[in-house]
Amino acid sequence: MKKILLLFLIFFVLLSLFPHTVYSDLAEEQKKLEKYKIELEKIKKAINDTTINEKTAQALLDSIYDEIDKITSNIIVIQNKINVVNEEITAAENMIQQKTQDILQNEDQIKASINLSYKLAAISPIELLLTGQDPDTMNQRIAYLSYISLSSKTILDKTKVERELLTQKKEDLIKNKEYLNQFLSEKWKQQEVLKEETAMQNKLIATLETRKIIYTKKKSEIEKEIEKEKALIEKLIREAAEAGRVLTTGLIWPVKGPITSYFGWRTHPIWGIRSFHEGIDIAVPTNTKVLATASGSVTYAGWMTGYGNVIILYHGSNISTLYAHLKNFAVKNGDLVAQGQIIGYADSTGWSTGPHLHFGVYLDAKAVDPLKYLVQP
Ligand SMILES: [Zn+2]
User: Fold this and answer.
1) pLDDT tens per residue across span 330-356
2) Contact criterion met (CB below 8 Å) for 286 and 347
3) How many alpha carbons lie under 13 Å from residue 138 in its C-beta half-sphere?
4) Structural domains in the chain?
5) What element of type H or E holds 171?
6) CA-CA to 312 of 20 to 30 Å: which in 17, 60, 70, 77?
């Protein structure tokens, strides 16, 4: 007999402990879920930021590539110009060589004619008389030779001037070439800098890409955790509802307010006849949050004559609760709810003289006095 009593005692102790464990677990899991949701939002933002950064880097990279292309075509143009200048320099050099040869030839010719005229001039008039030559004719010949050497001298001077001009031109061309080469090396340098920049941008993009992959992985992990949490919460709610132990810990108040009508026989406020009031009326302002008195499932959320918008929750073990005259619903048929969860908002729908919550408790489909089950807040 004692043993049986002891077993009973243990059973009741466990019974009273169980709901507490379930609900504290549930609160714990709901807290975790909220944390995961915040984390998810953070990671989504991080992914978004990374995507924007990546796009910016990509746009910058594209513009750098465009710039490199422009510089490359500049380089080609400059190189072509340098080639042309080189050809011009070669042409000038050839002409200078030609002029130098001309000058040498002219100089030889002049020397030869001057020698001849000197030779002729060295012959004395007596000698000319003796040889019977006409001194006038001789003088004319000397004059002619002098003329030849004079004209050769003119050509020589002209050629020298031409060669000077060509040398000047060549120098200008070389200067031009130097300038072009300098310009070219500047372009090469610019291109080098831009190529380094593309390497950096590519590296940045790769880093962002890797980061995005990590974030995305993290995101799907969090999403999985959220799904797991949701499933766990549902399971806990279902277990709690199925265990039906809520009444051992008591129901929490769905709203806080003064009781304006108690459970039992009363004169109906609208019809003025004696009728049985299957719950309590708690006066609250319109839009007051209505909370689930215990965990359970929504068995009805809709219109009911008299009650207006009404929600019925089933908590397991044939225990149900009813919330009437609501403005609207925060849950729908079939939803699982946790104790303290918002299920709707108070109003005055249906047969009601003012905003209040009608709250009913049913045990085996029979109305019972809610005040016997509600715990003090
Ligand atoms: Zn009522």
Assistant:
1) 999 888 898 899 999 999 999 888 999
2) yes
3) 17
4) 1-241 (1.10.287.2610), 247-372 (2.70.70.10)
5) helix 135-243
6) 17
